[in-house]
Amino acid sequence: MNEDMLFITEDQVNESAFAPTEEVVDSQKFLVFMTDDLKIGVDAEVVIEISTSYTITYLPMLPPFIRGIINLRGQMIPIIDIRLHLGKPEKTDCLVIVLNLNGTEMGIFVDSVDQMIDIPKADIRPMPAQSVQKLVSGMCALPDGSGTMLVLDCEQLLPHD
Predict the structure, then answer these.
(1) What is the SS3 assignment for 84-152?
(2) Looking at residue 160, what is its pLDDT?
(3) What is the block-wise mean pLDDT of the chain (161 residues), using blocks of 10 residues?
(4) Is 78:107 a contact under the CB 8 Å cutoff?
(5) How far from 75 is each of 49, 53, 72, 98, 106, CA to CA, in Å?
(6) Distance (Å, rounded) from C-alpha 50 to C-alpha 32?
(7) Which has the closest alpha carbon to 87: 134, 121, 52?
(8) Beta strand pairing call for 104-110 and 75-81
């Protein structure tokens, strides 16, 4: 047997040979969109698609922030105008982000899409208790230093009994 050969015991293999070299960070992927100067993130897992081509059918007797419905491959999708929901003026040249919220599909009007980004969950801070904004559940600084992102609370978009 060659004396230059190196033997590793089973204990050494279990302890150090396969030890992780990096710390695993629990993060969440967000699609960041713009509404005026606000950057708002929505959980990327609920995003179905982004559309620039749509025809809205107006429905009477609904709150003003519900702009109507669109026909998306035979399915009627209600459209919520985030601008109006946030108290901002109406805008006509918007994108539609289609979301699947617990099996309910709906679209939201946004000015533009900014980026897709991973945010460590530990970096997301809850909104201040005195905040009157019900659509936002948290906020965080963007890692690229481009500002603050508000986290959209999608559950608040669904009608409540």
Answers:
(1) HHCCCCCCCCCEEEEEEECCEEEEEEECEEEEEEEEEHHHCEECCCCCCCCCEEEEEECCCCCCEEEEE
(2) 59
(3) 53 52 77 92 95 90 91 92 86 90 92 93 84 80 88 80 50
(4) yes
(5) 14, 15, 5, 12, 10
(6) 12
(7) 134
(8) parallel
